[in-house]
User: Fold this.
Amino acid sequence: MRVHVVGAGPVGLLLTALLQSMEGFSVRLYEKRREYTRTRMVQLAPYLVADSVESYRADAIDGDSVDAIFDPHELDQGLAFRQSIPSDLTALLKNWSLGFCPLNSIERSVSDLIDERGPNGVERTAAVVTAEDAMAMLEPGDVLIDSTGSSSLLRDHLVPGSGDADEGANTVKVRLEYALVITFLYGQRYDCNEQCKYYKNIESAQYKFIPMVHRTYYDGSVSHVTGIVNISAEEYEAMPSRFDGEWLRSNVLGVAESMDRFIDKIKEETHGEIIGELEIVRIPLDLYRARNATSRQWLKAGPRDHPFAGSPVFLAGDSAIGSPYFQSISLGFECAMFLAGLMTQSDLPLGEMLDRYELYIYKQWLRVYMRSKMIKHNKDLFESLDDPLALLEKLHIY
Ligand SMILES: Cc1cc2nc3c(=O)[nH]c(=O)nc-3n(C[C@H](O)[C@H](O)[C@H](O)COP(=O)(O)OP(=O)(O)OC[C@H]3O[C@@H](n4cnc5c(N)ncnc54)[C@H](O)[C@@H]3O)c2cc1C
Assistant:
């Protein structure tokens, strides 16, 4: 089976490496970037390398949702697939899920692994692929996987319509908030928990810096700290997309003062220093999903001569679902593993394969939707902890 994977970010690369190790697949991998340069530190969820249902659902926030959403046999199948992953890839996954690592080191290590494996079975093309290119490259029976990230190449082409893509035709989006993602390095060990978040923000009534759960990581000499500060839509619009602490001090004094108070309290406790500058990105924290994560609508109702009516298309990673609060790569990897497992079942009728992937994506969406809403709700409550009336307003107990 010939599989076209468009987009060699972390998810496209993982899918390629999985398919490469399975019999009967030849993969064409397309990527527009010449180099992997994204240095932001990311963390993968421990459930990615779980070896039992207990460890898979050992998450303080969504352990119960996992039981409620997935059937036991689905969880068992997922674990069985994980155990079948070749040891070279498993070793990488285990390593990444230990702590933080730069995004480009994940990308480079899977990319190198793909290139070094022999016999290879992967043909790489450095090119910007357009939707028209993607349609033209398909021969009947080929599979097309769109792993081009949040601005997905094909998401809005998966619904048969007038022919042109209708922006938003196939996307459900929930905007949770606007935030500054602030990262810094600190020259001593620094671990954070809920009490720490509270006491270090106690004098900051408006802007609270909240290191995300497990968003601090000590690598033996330096602590990596990443957290978010909630900002308004107007503040978001007035900022550049990326800036440093100096720009923050000159332009958004309230956030700068809140950061200074937070950092001073860390220093009081552990007597270290900040290394380098604050790195700041402003992002809208959106939850979204593709209503159709496959070409099943073309298969059911599209004109027979359209390329998507004869060749299955799948969205994977941020193309299919996006979520804030630092969980998307894990979710994308999870879906990539499921898709690779599905593709090995050569006796599965095409319609059923598409339906099963859709159902799985929908279940993962439910899980991440509930998880993200819960995190947002907890953050909202946290920001009003010192104001009981405002807190009660947000509780909606019954
Ligand atoms: C500040 C920040 C911090 C984050 N931290 C975390 C974290 O700690 N944990 C976590 O799980 N997630 C985190 N994320 C989210 C994570 O980075 C994304 O979920 C992840 O990169 C998505 O992977 P992907 O492979 O689906 O898409 P992408 O990483 O977006 O990769 C898509 C690839 O497709 C290529 N491409 C796009 N269009 C085309 C085209 N037309 N032709 C050819 N190639 C194309 C792109 O060049 C790119 O290489 C963070 C995000 C941000 C912004």
